[in-house]
Amino acid sequence: MSKLEVLFVHPNASGKIYQGLSKDYSAIEPPIWAALLANHVRNKGHTVKILDCEAERFDPKMSAEAITKADAKLVAFVIYGQQPSASTQNMSGVRDILSILKLQDPDAKTILIGLHPSAVARDTLHSEDTDFVCQGEGLKTVTGLLGLKDMDDPDELEKVPGLWYWVDKKVRFTRPAPIIPQKEMADELPGMAWDLLPMDKYRTSNWHAMTNDDITAPFASLYTSLGCPFKCSFCCINAPFGNNNVENWDHGRNKFRFWDPEFIIDEFDKIHKMGIRNVKIADEMFVMNKRHFMKLCELIDERGYDFNIWAYARIDTVKEEYLEALKKAGVNWLALGIESGSKDVRSDVIKGKFTELNIVDLVQKIKDAGINVIGNYIFGLPEDTLDSMQETLDLALELNCEFSNFYCTMAYPGSKLYLDALREGWTLPTSYEGYSQHSYETRPLDTKYIGAKEVLAFRDKAFVEYYTNEKYLEMIKEKFGQKTVDGINDMLKHTLKRKLLEE
Q: Which helix (H) or strand (E) holds 333?
């Protein structure tokens, strides 16, 4: 058997970034980008495996041992998050593994790929004990490295696009790697390497399972598109595709692409054959290109699949005429980026100028179509005050979505807010875990008017107020039964510890 050429590693940082919620409440999602990269590299003729440390529940020591045992020519850490915009928080898992791996196997060649490395490649190379950092999607970079005769030869490394590395204690980087154009998506990114993943170990979020008799597994997630055409200042989703990066980037490149529905339906066929019902469409914005998502919905409906799907949308991309098709395809949940109850606060972060009346009206129409809503709200945006955050909470209570996420504003590396923070000298988290919404170390941004401590305290109070609201619990009981209500009440027993609130 030929030597393994590349091992793609999905690190495990769940305990640090989710505290006690990681055991029973947070989802365990297939590492989509690792699976896409693995399939691409395999189709180029290379031997490849995936090590999903989170799904296997490996601690850093166990992860390092498994990596050493694999004895791969190249170890590629692929760092993305469950939330599309959150990658930095998962870097803590990478650091913990590398600290052990480089001691027990100093000759192991490692590369870091993902949102965070793409956004801050130089900083990542300086801060982590790795040989290489990838800026970009990673496809051309990984295959370029594997094609070299000697990964220690600086002249050879210059041939690899999107690569950051050391030469004589000096940082070197190559030209940005070209992203895969729309017309080549099916050939260069031909779906996920499902066979390399421990599919029996994945589970969806408890709220998603409300529409599947609270059964969380089996579960699959996949992309039908890559990137996002919008420019919300708090989001870093486009970091690998050439947007809002710190340096060395071609900002004029196309960032948003999608697979043809006729191609992507094959992925749905595969997961259906695996017996999977719970499905997450992980696109940052699924409900956007009508020709794309409506055709895919039609193809799923034609097959008669009984999927329980959740997907992302924006208030200003959802139209009433789409709802019947979405529901027929099995889209039982739409996650809406509502963010703030104040139009002025939203406008400041380039979120749009849709009115509260439109939000209320549309959410009700979605519900009337039999689709549940996940309302996503952010406290502590730059223009937020205590009064405007209360507006946001009041709107959340009025909408009474089947599930709601309450976030604090983070300046994620790769976002415009991060660049603003560097320029203005705003206080940022001092650890990777500090970028996690649920960690002990979490450290939101200050707003122009109130501090991070006030923002975090308000967020945690709002979470409890929402999920103990009598109107909400009555609605959940009526729609999903007492068992689901009991699950929500149990969730509330897991109080998050916050270092910032202890100071």
A: strand 331-339
Q: What is the pLDDT of residue 352?
A: 54
Tokens of 114: 């993902």
* pLDDT tens sequence across 396-454: 999 999 999 999 999 999 888 898 999 999 999 999 999 999 999 999 999 999 999 99
Closest Cα to residue 8, out of 138, 125, 103, 116? 138
Is 194 within a domain?
A: no
Its pTM stands at 0.94
**Alpha carbon distance 16, 431 (integer Å):** 11
Are 210 and 155 in a shared domain?
no
**Which residues touch 469 (CB under 8 Å, ≥6 apart)?**
397, 400
**What mean pLDDT value characterizes the chain?**
91
Q: Which tokens is 151 given?
A: 């990964």
Q: Is the pLDDT of residue 251 over 50?
A: no
Indicate whether 367 and 267 sit together in one domain. yes
- Domain identity same for 207 and 165: no
Give the model's confidence band at 179: pLDDT under 50 very low, under 70 low, under 90 confident, else very high: confident
For the chain, the domain total comes to 2
What percent of the chain has pLDDT above 70?
A: 94
pLDDT digits (tens, 9 = 90+) for 1-12: 578 999 999 999
How far, CA to CA in Å, does 388 sit from each of 450, 453, 475? 11, 16, 26
Last residue of a domain, one of 131, 151, 173: 173
How far is 118 from 121, CA to CA, in rounded Å?
Answer: 5
The residue segments making up the domain with residue 81 are: 6-173
Residues 299 and 413 in one domain: yes
CATH number of the domain to which 394 belongs: 3.80.30.20
Contact 327, 370 (CB under 8 A): yes
